[in-house]
Structures are given as structure tokens and as C-alpha cells.
Amino acid sequence: MAEIVNRVANSKLKTIDLEDFYPEGKRVIFDIKPWLFQELILKEKDFRAAMDAYDWGTLKDTYIALTCSSDAIIPSWAYLLIATKAAPYAKKIIVGDLKMLETTIFQEIIHQFSLEDYRDTPVIIKGCSNKPIPESAYTQLIEKLWPLVNSLSFGEACSTVPLFKKKKS
Predict the structure, then answer these.
(1) How far apart are CA 123 and CA 160, in angstroms?
(2) What is the pLDDT of residues 134-143, one digit of tens each?
(3) Residue 27 CB neighbours (<10 A)
């Protein structure tokens, strides 16, 4: 009987699983609506008092999405003021929702991603993650990889969707 050979394990094929780069840390929606007069109007003196009374230490090692869930018009300086209080504790602060927060986190991860190990090789970008990887993270990764790699696929080694293959010169 012939020996079973794992051709995938023996190939130059490299797999990137964005889930491996998912940073630990709690994600928090920080809604300023309760700090508004009648949940609609920002009164600077009251707003600053609410900020001074808040225990910013509860945000240690968190990723924060600042938002206001009411239809109030919030001046930009309000979010900036919150950021100055939260920055010593938070890992990341954005104005937006959790989806935008994850997108921003992964923009930074992919920007710092080292590509040299993938030059002139076939690459699979692994899908099916258990963590909330934003769709845009995959497209940003492809943007960085396609000029360097021989080919790009999406999925698992046993079942991939071909995305790109460099033309032979």
C-alpha cells in the first residue's frame, strides 16, 4: 500500500488567518446620551461634571467606540474631551459603532503586517473565523498581498476559492 503524503503540508503554500491577529481586549460602546440634558442637549458645565464623576479606570485595556444614541447634535470637542479622559486607559478610541471600531483596529494590524514571508508564494487567506473579523480586513490584506504573491485563494487548504494568480512571464 502506498504511503499517504500530505501534499499541502509539503508545499510552499502559506495560510494567513486574520483571527490569529485578533487583539485581546473588551470592546465597549460608550454612549454619551445619559450625559445630555433631557438626553438631547449638551450643556458644557453639566457634561464636564459628568465626565469628572465617571470612573475612567473601568475602561482599562478596552477598545472604545464613542457614540450618542439620541438624535442630539454633538459638537466635535465633546468626543475629543472624552478621548482625553479615556486615552490613558483605553487601547483604542474611535467615534462610531463596534463595526467601525473593528475595522479601524484591523486597518492598523494590516498596515503593520510584514509581507516578506509571503513573497513569490501561493497564499490562502483563511475564512470561517469565530471572531468578528471585518470584511474590509480581507480586502485590505489582498491589496497589500497581490503585488507580491504568486496566487491568492480564500477558504481552507482542502477547499479554496481562487482569487488571483500571477501571470507567468
Answers:
(1) 11
(2) 999 999 999 9
(3) 15
